[in-house]
């Protein structure tokens, strides 16, 4: 079961980055042993190596090839290391090629059969689905307070659209009529990825981040999803575990700048 959850988390990350990257002008390199996409994002996270299954003798040339494409497009990039990444010594080879270790992010998994055990929804937070451009602008305005990539990602979301067939569903939480929080669900089969949980700075440390997450988990269950994945921040990690999330694994992020 643990291995299966790990595979789901890895698949969701790849799906997230491809959904976003393929809707912009991009270069994609998809081979049996390595897969990367460079949508020329000003934020390095999205110009990324998504999957690596290399033999040791192939690694240096593939790293150099990725670096060359980043330099060609004049952007920085990320290399994601997940439990299935091969070879095992890739971290050291990335550092040798001037990648910098950024962080290790816990990947969490939630079984939506547990939703009955969630705390009751806050009566003072109304969570609404983003259905039009005006609401998307409100969503983006909140997101700008928590994510450096908000402007670029908002452009992607405009291209993706807001139809029922769009891969993302975006939500805005309103407190006393004011928009204060965001969260998004990404459709990945039976699994939904939770992304962009953000609270306006004036309303932080009052439980609104967890409140919108609880609401979105219930919405995911009502829509027929079976599981949810989430990359946890340091601040939210313990709170997510208390809600019933399980830690599956860690992803390590390396960044190349020049």
From TrEMBL:
SUPFAM superfamilies, per database record: Acyl-CoA N-acyltransferases (Nat)
Family annotation (InterPro entries): Acyl_CoA_acyltransferase, GNAT_dom
Residue span(s) of domain N-acetyltransferase: 125-258
Protein name, as recorded: GNAT family N-acetyltransferase
High-level lineage: Bacteria, Bacillati, Cyanobacteriota, Cyanophyceae, Leptolyngbyales
């Amino acid at each position: 079961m643990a291995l299966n959850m790990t595979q789901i988390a890895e698949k969701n990350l790849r799906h997230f980055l491809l959904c976003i990257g393929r809707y912009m002008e991009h270069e994609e390199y998809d081979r049996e042993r390595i897969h990367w996409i460079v949508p020329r994002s000003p934020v390095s996270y999205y110009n990324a190596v998504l999957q690596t299954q290399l033999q040791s003798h192939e690694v240096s040339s593939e790293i150099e090839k990725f670096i060359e494409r980043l330099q060609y497009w004049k952007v920085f990039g990320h290399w994601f290391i997940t439990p299935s990444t091969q070879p095992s010594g890739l971290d050291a080879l990335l550092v040798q090629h001037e990648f910098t270790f950024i962080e290790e992010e816990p990947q969490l998994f939630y079984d939506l059969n547990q939703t009955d055990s969630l705390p009751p929804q806050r009566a003072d937070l109304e969570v609404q689905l983003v259905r039009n451009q005006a609401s998307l602008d409100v969503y983006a305005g909140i997101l700008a307070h928590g994510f450096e990539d908000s402007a670029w990602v908002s452009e992607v979301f405009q291209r993706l659209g807001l139809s029922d067939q769009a891969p993302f569903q975006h939500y805005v939480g309103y407190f006393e009529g004011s928009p204060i929080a965001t969260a998004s669900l990404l459709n990945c089969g039976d699994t939904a990825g939770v992304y962009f949980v953000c609270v306006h700075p004036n309303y932080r440390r009052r439980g609104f981040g967890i409140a919108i997450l609880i609401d979105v988990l219930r919405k995911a269950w009502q829509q027929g999803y079976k599981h949810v994945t989430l990359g946890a921040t340091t601040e939210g990690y313990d709170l997510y575990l208390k809600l019933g999330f399980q830690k599956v694994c860690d992803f390590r992020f390396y960044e190349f700048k020049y």
